[in-house]
Design brief:
Blueprint: H1 2-12, E1 16-20, H2 22-41, H3 44-68, E2 71-76, E3 87-95, E4 102-108, E5 117-122, E6 127-134, E7 140-143, E8 147-151, E9 158-164, E10 169-172, H4 181-184, E11 195-210, H5 222-228, E12 232-239, E13 244-248, E14 251-252, H6 257-279, E15 284-288, H7 303-311, E16 315-316, H8 321-336, E17 343-348, E18 364-367, H9 371-378
Parallel strand pairs: 13-15, 13-17, 14-16, 17-18
Antiparallel strand pairs: 1-9, 2-3, 3-6, 4-5, 4-8, 7-10, 8-9, 11-12
Helix pairs in contact: 2-3, 6-7
Length: about 375
């Protein structure tokens, strides 16, 4: 029976902890002293004071537990979250109790990623919204941090905390950095008879939009910016051959820390290039060794490309001849699609002899292990 009660207690009070505050420690010691004096003297007044002090301890436990019960938290994230970059998020704290309010509690995540939030009073059925910023260091599917609720309500005798594990996950895109102008630049061909009436790299001005730090400052329309008192960027009409085809090889010849760093740098390079060119109006397509087909068509919607780069994993070289043959077949199948119209860019984590005979099929070959890309990654894409 005692084992059953212990398990029941752990189930009811799981993820909870109670510690004494300095005031609570002194109050409990004083209560014990009054109890000893009441037993030794038999004074009814001391018994009355002892009863009152014990009732305050009980009331403190009940009210603090009531203050933390039925509080839910919802996260409101932006459409895109990039690794190692602060993302704005809203925390919506709701008191789900029907009648009783919650008083004087604080919420934090036990990490610097989420700032602490204090609520003096949250009425029943009320929702409070707090703007926050959160930062994820790695790409991919990331779990949300557990939330901790703390209170010393009502008398400050005890510090009660409640941990709420978060089962929700979010998809974090790779880190996006400003790419060097020599790589981002796409040779336009003005004078084409056929033009698409959408933004791109043509010769005809299509639109003006707000300038962002990731844009090339050479595209700023200074006259319009002076007139509107804000920086505006020029967008040109897209030409017929503005499609960008990124060929990303996720093949690694060894399982080493250096190779993994080169792989992550290549992922960031592909994501940064796709983001920069997509923002300029180019239709971008991504193909990897994980797909042996021709891959999706080029599109101005960047989210499918960024999502695939967020989830991509390396394919390691194997001593098994059958595995090596399969990788070679995938490389051959991928290279056959390099005859597509538009700019064709091959992105390699490091030099790979399997791709050497096929380099001529691509407009450009970018190797993430080169010193210029190591400097680019360490400097956060800043122009040096």
């Amino acid at each position: 029976m005692s084992a059953f009660l212990i398990r029941l207690q752990r189930l009811i009070y799981r993820n909870r902890s109670v510690t004494f505050t300095p005031t609570g420690t002194r109050f409990v010691l004083l209560t014990l002293a009054v109890g000893v004096a009441a037993v030794n003297t038999g004074n009814n007044l001391l018994y009355l004071i002892l009863g009152m002090m014990l009732s305050l301890i009980i009331v403190s436990g009940i009210l603090s537990e009531q203050s933390l019960r039925k509080i839910s938290v919802e996260w409101a994230f932006p459409v895109r979250i990039f690794a190692q970059q602060p993302a704005p998020v809203e925390l919506r704290i709701t008191n789900d109790k029907r009648l009783l309010p919650s008083f004087s509690f604080r919420m934090d995540a036990g990490t610097e990623a989420v700032q602490s939030v204090y609520m003096f009073k949250l009425s029943a059925r009320q929702t409070a919204v707090f703007p926050q910023t959160i930062r994820f260091e790695k790409r991919g599917i990331q779990p949300l941090p557990s939330l901790r609720f703390h209170t010393t309500f009502p008398f400050g005798f005890f510090h009660k905390s409640l941990i709420r594990p978060q089962i929700r996950t979010v998809l974090v895109y790779p880190r996006v950095l400003p790419v060097p102008p020599s790589i981002e630049r796409v040779s336009s061909r003005p004078g084409q008879d056929h033009e698409y009436r959408q933004r791109g790299s043509g010769a005809t001005l299509h639109n003006l939009r707000d300038y962002t730090p990731l844009d090339d400052a050479r595209g700023i329309h200074w006259k319009a910016s002076a007139r509107e008192l804000k920086l505006l960027l020029k967008e040109y009409e897209r030409e017929e051959d503005d499609d960008i085809h990124l060929f990303f090889t996720n093949h690694l010849s060894a399982r080493s820390e250096e190779h993994l760093q080169n792989f992550e740098r290549a992922v960031e390079l592909a994501a940064s290039l796709a983001y920069a060119l997509g923002r300029r109006g180019y239709a971008v397509a991504l193909q990897t060794l994980s797909e042996t087909e021709s891959g999706p068509e080029a599109s101005t919607d960047l989210d499918p490309v960024l999502k695939r780069l967020a989830l991509i994993q390396p394919l390691y070289d194997s001593t098994d001849p059958a595995d090596r043959d399969r990788i070679s077949q995938r490389i051959a199948a991928l290279s056959r699609t390099a005859a597509l119209e538009g700019r064709r860019i091959l992105i390699l984590p490091c030099t790979d002899p399997l791709w050497d005979p096929l380099r001529g099929r691509f407009s450009e070959v970018l190797v993430a292990s080169e010193p210029r890309f190591k400097t680019w990654s360490r400097s956060g894409g800043k122009r040096t």
